[in-house]
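re: ur question from yesterday

yeah so i grabbed the chain u mentioned. its 357 aa long if i counted rite. heres the sequnce exactly as i have it in my notes:
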Amino acid sequence: MTNESDPIAEAQAQIAAGHAHEAARALRARLADGRGGALARTTLVTALLASGDVRGALAEAREAVSLNPDVPAVLVALGQALLAAENLPAAIAELQRAQRLDPGHEEARFLTGRAWAQAGEADKALEIFGGLDSATPGLDQWQARARAMKDALRSDPGYVRHLFDQFAAEYDTRMRGPLAYAAPEILRDLADMVMHGRRDLAVLDLGCGTGLSGAAFQPLAARLDGMDLSPAMIEKARARDIYDQLTVGDIETVLAQPGPSYDLIIAADTLVYLGDLAPVIRGARARLAPEGYFLFTVEAAEEGFALGPKRRWRHSEAYLRAAAASAGFDVAGLVAAAPRREANLPVAGYAVALAVR
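ran it thru and got these structure tokens back, copy pasting raw so excuse formatting
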């Protein structure tokens, strides 16, 4: 750095000019010489994030907080690093802690709104954004993103990921206990009914979660792949050691891309996060081999599709039949089923088997 009188300003200028690596190198050298405080450390976090070194930024931010635990700007820097690492619950917690120390901290409030938006919580994000100065950089874009979420015909991927990342540690216990989750077994029974004893199948488990459905279908599979939005759920599924390949991704996006074909695609309690099922049904059809099947559960609606009070989408029988026909499927089976319970009552739904024409 050439301007020893204001090294932080020099670092910020380098970052703005696209030379974040150089700024980070100089700031690290300065801190190693014992010539920097909290501001140097938060600027270093900014430089590392700008250079794409999220892991390094996170390590430096945590070190800064350990040295300056009650400085709002330092907590905000950690929140930014956690956002970049897509650790939304932890990011929100640190940003909220910064606001408790400084309720007027505009950047902390804006970043909290951003974090809620990234988590798919549009209403929470918009409430925060509504209290910010309209000149806040980036506010218009994030408000527009949050409003678009509310109008979408599916649950926001960020919301689903956030929900299941939080839920992963206790998923099996809660689902098999209070919620009496039975979708994997319901689909396995349906498969036995419509597929006439076929074995040695290539199977894709959409929204595989911790692998409960994969475990139910493993005896039928020569190959078993899984896909889920939640990295935490994928790690739980990996621990079962039953899948040949596991992918973190959005099922609509991944199915729309070229990929391997399957004899059977299953989606147990997954399509409840989608309103318009046409994209995923078309995507499944494109990935199925001749004589392939798509089996899934949904919650029941009287007509069309609608968002229920638990933020889970419901679908009518007429809608499902029309969507299947439009995608080139025959309905091989469509039976009333209760994939889970809610408030000790069975949730009305359908188990559906679609066959490639």
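noticed a couple things. The chain has two domains: 7-151, 161-356. also The radius of gyration is 24 Å.
anyway ttyl
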